[in-house]
UniProtKB/TrEMBL annotation:
Alphabetized SUPFAM superfamilies for the sequence: 4Fe-4S ferredoxins
Lineage: Archaea, Methanobacteriati, Methanobacteriota, Stenosarchaea group, Methanomicrobia
Entry GO MF terms: 4 iron, 4 sulfur cluster binding; metal ion binding; NADH dehydrogenase activity
Protein's name in the database: 4Fe-4S ferredoxin-type domain-containing protein
Origin superkingdom: Archaea
Gene Ontology biological process terms, A to Z: aerobic respiration
Gene Ontology cellular-component annotations: membrane
Keywords from the UniProt entry: 4Fe-4S, Iron, Iron-sulfur, Metal-binding, Repeat
Cited PROSITE patterns: 4FE4S_FER_1, 4FE4S_FER_2
InterPro entries according to UniProt: 4Fe4S_Fe-S-bd (IPR017896), 4Fe4S_Fe_S_CS (IPR017900), F420H2_dehydrogenase_I (IPR053604), NADH_quinone_OxRdtase_chainI (IPR010226)
4Fe-4S ferredoxin-type domain boundaries: 35-64, 75-104
Amino acid sequence: MVLKNIKYAIRNITRPPVTRMYPEKQSELSGRFRGLQILDKSKCIGCGICANTCPNAAIKIVKAPIAPGSTKQRWFPQIDIGHCLFCGLCIDQCPKGALSSGKEYAKGLVKWKHKDLLMTPEKLAREVDLEEGDEK
């Protein structure tokens, strides 16, 4: 058994390593990967179909400014990422295609407190930085 393992190790010395040094080297994602949702505020009509479709009730419709610095407000989805399944039903059911799936799965989503996982319309529209919540 020991000789078999030594023989296996010697045979694989010249092969490239299969482990990756995360987060320095990130994984390649498939085209079908569903990460954090992206909101296009210009397309969103605030109908709430995404909130009604969500199986975990992670989406709420809240009032938010239509653009950074604007005083005019409209209804937009707000997603609690701590409860989101990333199933994509909200994206499939959006009648105007305002929600889409992004590729973020680690940056800005790893938090210590659950209240920090609340993705406001500004964060979903990427108007503020996901990690710090500061305006760009």
